[in-house]
ABC transmembrane type-1 domain-containing protein (Aquarana catesbeiana), 234 residues
Amino acid sequence: NKYIPFEYFSIIILQVTIFLHFLWAGPLQAIAVTVLLWLEIGPSCLAGMAVLIILMPLQTCLGKLFTSLRGKTAAITDIRIRTMNEVISGMRIIKMYAWEQPFTELVNQNRKKEISKVLRSSYLRGLNLASFFVASKIIVFVTFTTYVLLGNVISASRVFVAVSLYSAVRLTVTLFFPSAIERVSETKVSIRRIKNFLLLDEVSKPAVYQPEENEEDLLVQIQDLTCYWDKVRV
């Protein structure tokens, strides 16, 4: 049996609805903040927004890599779970033939492959979180460096307004937007697994007539039957 019940009961549809709307709200908020910054500090804001524009496709690429790794991780996890189910169901045979060591190595090998994929996914998630904490500092630095190079004088009021606006857009663009990509990626993997399960061939029920208990004159008809049984001493 290629599909085991546990792997479909264990499907986790993450809270994609929480982050889904940030896929379109993030770019719109970035445009609105750009307009406000233009009114406040002029064309210098374009330098800071350019950093955000560079981060967004970078995070999209990371999201695609995360999707690929998530699919591979799910496949390896299914293999490991299926192997464990077979080990548990055949434990008596394994103990009888002393196959503990080969099956232990097989399970450990599958687990190592799974951990390797999980670690790579964690590294990608760590890069997204790192971009969240680093992006705001880089954006502010690039913005006001450009502002000074254009011959302007920095004032506390302009810095306060610019930092506030960048902080508002940073949460959406550098945290919620990549989180939405990750959640959608994992949800696509889960939906594809559910689809494969639902597209399996239907198993028809055996066409066996079972009479009611209260029926009288029950008949049994046997045609072309070959059977045998062993004698059992009691």
User: Anything to note?
Assistant: Residues 98 and 199 are 39 Å apart (CA to CA).
